[in-house]
């Protein structure tokens, strides 16, 4: 696949900031090349910090509003055309039918008609991520007469993907590397828009942790900085 030929790309993320962690540099590169890049967020974020998601509404409602503003600022930093929020319960996607989630995603896919879809790795530690992967594969399935994306990639998310058991069942084994050497600064700028999500080093979701992973993925393919993906589907017609 040649990203320069991609007309429309859809990044499906469980939570705001997952999209930047997993594919921020690639999104910026595609947008600069003229691809219309969109993002869908399945879960709202924030509310999983409390045992009762409806408690502390005086704190969570302003925080959720700020998180949406952060997500839009991050999208602007990457050149994303538009973002969409499904508003499902944060870190409680297991309380929602996978079929219902897939229908919501299918509506976005049908409306946007992306050639390329990026979503979470199937073996992530975070269960919202794995549920989003399952729902994406259902929503993007190939059916005669229906639109479906030709390309599906999964991405890694620091503080989730690498924290899973590193066994063949769960390991992230990338087979696609995208040079983001000219776009790593855009990725960092987008992450800085998420005012409450970055942590101090040596937390993996820190500015240095993100840079180190991009360097590691880069040297795997003789590049300075790269993002890594698993190619799940590649339809050549």
Structural description of this entry:
It is a single chain. The chain is of the alpha/beta class and 237 residues long. It has one domain (7-234): LmbE-like (Rossmann fold), CATH 3.40.50.10320. It is built from 6 helices and 7 strands; from the N terminus they run βαβαβαβαββααβ. The chain has a 7-stranded mixed β-sheet with strand order 3-2-1-4-5-7-6, with helices on both faces. α4 links the parallel β4 (116-120) and β5 (151-155). The longest helix has 22 residues, at 57-78.
Q: Give the biggest sheet.
A: 7 strands, mixed
- % residues in beta strands: 15-25%
Counted beta strands: 7
Output the helix-strand order. EHEHEHEHEEHHE
Strand order of the largest sheet: 3-2-1-4-5-7-6
| Overall structural domain count | 1
Helicity range: 25-40%
- CATH topology-level fold name: Rossmann fold
> Which CATH architecture?
3-Layer(aba) Sandwich
Which blocks of ≥5 consecutive residues have pLDDT under 50?
Answer: none
CATH superfamily: LmbE-like
Calculate the mean pLDDT score and round it. 93
Summing up helix and strand content along with how strands pair, one would put the structural category as: alpha/beta
CATH class: Alpha Beta
Q: What gyration radius follows from the Cα positions, in whole Å? A: 17 Å
Number of helices: 6
Inertia-based shape: globular
Question: Kindly, what is the distance between the CA atoms of the first and last residues, rounded to a whole number of angstroms?
Answer: 12 Å
């Amino acid at each position: 696949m040649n990203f320069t030929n991609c007309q429309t790309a859809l990044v499906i993320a469980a939570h705001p900031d997952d999209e930047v962690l997993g594919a921020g540099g690639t999104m910026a590169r595609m947008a600069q090349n003229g691809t219309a890049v969109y993002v869908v967020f399945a879960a709202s974020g924030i509310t999983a910090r409390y045992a009762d998601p409806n408690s502390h509404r005086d704190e969570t409602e302003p925080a959720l509003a700020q998180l949406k503003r952060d997500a839009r600022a991050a999208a602007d930093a990457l050149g994303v055309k538009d973002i969409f929020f499904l508003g499902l319960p944060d870190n409680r996607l297991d309380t929602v039918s996978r079929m219902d989630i897939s229908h919501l995603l299918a509506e976005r896919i049908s409306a946007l008609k992306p050639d390329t879809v990026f979503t979470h790795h199937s073996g992530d530690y975070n269960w919202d991520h794995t549920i989003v992967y399952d729902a994406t594969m259902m929503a993007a399935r190939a059916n005669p007469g229906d639109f479906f994306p030709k390309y599906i990639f999964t991405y890694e998310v620091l503080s989730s993907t690498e924290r899973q058991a590193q066994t063949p069942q769960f390991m992230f084994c990338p087979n696609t590397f995208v040079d983001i050497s000219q776009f790593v600064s855009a990725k960092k700028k987008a992450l800085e828009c998420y005012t409450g999500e970055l942590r101090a080093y040596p937390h993996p979701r820190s500015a240095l942790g993100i840079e180190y992973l991009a360097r590691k993925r880069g040297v795997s393919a003789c590049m300075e900085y790269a993002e890594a993906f698993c190619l799940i589907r590649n339809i050549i017609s």
